[in-house]
Model the fold of this input.
Amino acid sequence: MPPRKLALDLGRCSSYICKSCLDSLRPATARPWLARPSSNAARRAQPSPSNPRKLEAVPDPAELQRMLAEELERSPEPTSSPGGLDVNFFNQEAPGRLRRLRDNDEFGEVSGGLDAEIETAINDLEKQMINTAKMLRRMEKQGGQDKADELRKQFKKTLRLQYKGKTGPEAEEYGLLRISGFSGPRQRTVANLNTFLARDSVVKGGIPRAKDVAECWKYYSAARKTLSTAWQNVPQEVWNFLWMVLSWEGEGVENPNRMQHIYILAKDMQAAGVPLRESQQLLAIEAMFIEGWEDEAIEAWKKGVVTLGSKPETFTDYWELGVRMCALHGDTERAHRAAETLLRSSQPPNARILLPVIRALAAKKATVDQAWESYQHMRTLLGESITIEDYDEVIAVFLTSDSVEYALQAFVDMMFSRTIDIRGKTRLPLTVGNHFFIGKWLKRLIGVGDLGGAYKVVMYVQSKGITPSPIQLNGLIGAWLRSGAAENMERAENLAWSMIRARLDYVKQRHETVKFYDPYSLSVTEGSDSEPKFICQTRATAETFSLLAENYCSRRLHSRLQKLFEVLRQAEIGPTSFLMNQLIRSYSQNGEADEAANLYHTMTKEQNIRPDGHTFLTLFNSLSVNRLFQRDPDLSRKDIIAARQFFRDMVEADWAFDSPDIFAQLPRTILFSLLKAKDYRGTIVAARAMRELFAFHPPEALLIELATGAGSLQVKTKRNMDRLVSGRRTIEMLMKKHRMELIKSGHPGVKMTEEEKVNELHDVLEKLMLLKAGAQSVGRDEVEQLLEEVAREMGVYDVVVKKNIGLIAKHRKLGKQMTGPV
Done:
């Protein structure tokens, strides 16, 4: 906002002079200024203090170059005046409220919309001009007229290059981008837009960035209301630059509101009377259509048939836009005619323009056959150039419209070079009607995320006498459950329980007299109104139960999980370790830790289920020290007994690590569980046993966390950071103590082998446990005696104390892929 009032400091009094009165006092012969003075000294250098000059807007680039050239021709001597008036500038921020401006920089920014960076650039340009004029005048006095003329031309050329403006992606130049001629309360928004347009970082290298697009709309949208009062003051170059930035859709630039911005910008340009180029007209019509003005956009497209539709530069884009808009609008006849106009023209035809027509025709039952004919026409035109992506799009179109037969025919066309016609046949040919072929199709549909289409294929092929494989349906159920959507999870449950019913019916045929649990009460729904009821004939497998069990456990649906296991026994499918782990985890989450432990013993002892590493990880997590925030001493004592028993069973069980994740999680969980229960002796024994059986070596980071007594300190609060610092100090102190013992025993203490470093980590861990137990002063022999008693209870006496090589090799849990320390 330009300053509304000026106060002249006359020593004893001051008064306000409005801008209109100040303009009336200005002499008509006053010379226009080139740049604002950069200091009070420059203002005092004015010819006469009694004739204050009117503040003018920064001239246009061409006008600026003309005035600079005239100044160079004249080459005047700069004049100065020792005296002058001190002028105080004020800004009216609200009616009746004035604020004194701090300095000349703020005055220039408020009055002209220039920030300090641009103001400095203008001042530097003024200084360069004056210095160059002095140099040229001295050269002319010394007789170097020719050399002065040559330098003057070179300076003019440099000046033009300096103000050539910004460059776009296609090397187009936009000149000096600036909007002038606005004043009033909202002039600040125009100033902000000018500041943005003048930044060197905007469209750097000629390519807009995502930040450029976002900030361009931010400043332009804020200034639109002010600009609308005088659209004619916006230069053509600014419109072109704004269009280039806001319509940019280059690689790596996110512009989600591109069409909305183009629609608004096109309306503003139309209001300003700025003619749109042909390419801009097409983009504006498309933006109008996308923004919801479909009828108006199509009408504008029709009117452009003579101009846009006949020029070679816009012929293809014009008719392609018409095909897309008419197809989306439901005018399939006009869309088809527009596509035929393209395909029959002399321009290189692109048969894929028929895809919008195919999609529009397939959306209606009455025109599905026409959609198939358009697909065949496109396939003929493309020939060998047709791609898998083209087939996928056609297949998705027909699956969406429930035309599964046409979709299968398109998939057959993609898979076989020869023509196999399956339409209208009661039974599919053997080359198509088999598990392998249908399985490939289902796998592809699931892979691209078309789960609804995959389900339609399952229903279709079953109606043709083909029973899908359980592996294929389990894959569909798993994909539905992983999506997390409530609708997909409901569909997954319905399909899974339908497979379970098929399994129970199969078992029931062999045991007609056995009373079965009714699984129908467990399903969520039998099918929504929009989907037909589907009775699956594919029988459930253990994987089907596992998928449901994992889902029920993660959703904490304990009652459903219990019923699922009741049905599992009726289905005569042996429970796996995975199913057992899910049930143990569910009981633990439900607060029934004792029931979880009893279930583990029952299923491993009576049903001979072999546990794995995940089983013991689940058991240790079921301890109260890992479930409850508030520690209970009585429960902690029970946890010690249970944890030692779990560890004994883990050592005796025949299993091996199957993944790096469990290899990292299980030892850590065991140590923290015993530490939280304050079983320090058990922690030392477990660490020694896991060193032999797991090749486990505690890293320094784990030792620091054990020193703090917390399993996870990832949240960087002040309390946690203090605990980490304290834990680090403790570990460093214990490491220093260990190395002093090595030096006393004759070790140099400078370089350590890898084995010595591993021994150091284990020794520090044991010293840490003794420190926490308050037994750091207890003798070594007494400590070892106490550890032997615990080792017998944990079932690792022969491993830890006797070091029986045969038993160690027998109970080692490392698989072939698990090597090296954790």
